Amino acid sequence: MLRHFMQIEIDNDLLTAMAERWRPETHTFHLPEGEMTITLKDVAILTELPISGHVIIGSTTKPEGGWGPLIRDRLGFDMPTTTPIQGRGHPPLNAGQVSVLWLVTHIQAEVEINDETPEEQVERYACIYLIGLVGGFLFPDKSNRWIQGIWLDMLTGDWDAIGQKSWGSAVLAGVYRELCACSKVGAKQAGTAMFILQLWVWEHLPMFAPLDPRPYRRNDDELNFLQNPPYGVK
Exposed/middle/buried for 229, CB within 10 Å: 0-12, 13-18, 19+? Predict the structure, then answer.
């Protein structure tokens, strides 16, 4: 269900207004009516991400032998480390970060799943999709150009173990951290899943919610076919 949140258009003016009212000392929004903040319960209800289970931790240290062997082992293909992407001027791999553009381009060019596709290949591309979804949407780089190499190790292997991690807690921590960073003078961007902040505002401060949510949806037809979608998608 997580990918359906990508259909929501972000209201940058609303998020900017909220960031200006965030106080890092208390981790709350200072509003005329008083102080409010996003809670773990809010995240659980809006997104249905698990808030219990194993903590999300990992190492961003370059693995022994470099990132190349890890990518080859986990994703099943070699990634060039020096060739710029379509004249964009940056390589597919840089300081432990994987280029979003390279990953998407590579998958679109090579993925062709059908009934005869080996299960191993299906799982491999499912891993790549999951890495893009988590690393590029839930915990995005501020430039939306890079995915942290940490997800290569964390989102491959045991599928059951991935689902038992406390993703909601990690996302909330990321939102708090980004709000503290972007509330400072001179800040221009914010990463992490800021769509949660927008949904939270619409729910708790309904005077800022759109009367007609359709302009904020990129694909109404697909959303209408969902069975029991998360509250935030509704």
Answer: middle
